[in-house]
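Recap slide: Lipoprotein, sequence and predicted structure.
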Amino acid sequence: MRWSGSGIVITVLALTVAGCSSNNFLVYKDGSNFFITRNCEARQHLLCDSGDIGRIVAGAALPQSLQDRIKEAICAPGVMKADMHKILAEMTEEQRSSLKQSFRDNGYEINKPIDA
């Protein structure tokens, strides 16, 4: 299947809009990317196993209770996508921006589409 230039642009825009408008966002590091709310092996490895999520939430200067909720929603066994969606929806725009900046400060790219 061949992709035209406009098809790629539309796909990139759709991913970016989906990541921004829902308070969800795409993170990218070391060749892996995933939406922050998606429960997947890459998220577990990059954020939990490495300890990055602890550094990220601490660097975002979020209240300790919010830091704990985020770490649990991302790393605890049996968590559901809706758990992280709920937390993101409850956060202020300033808190979400601070969280995204902390991801960047820890070597992640935000809303970088696949193969971009």
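Residues 5-110 form one domain.
Residues 5-21 form the longest helix (17 residues).
(End of recap.)
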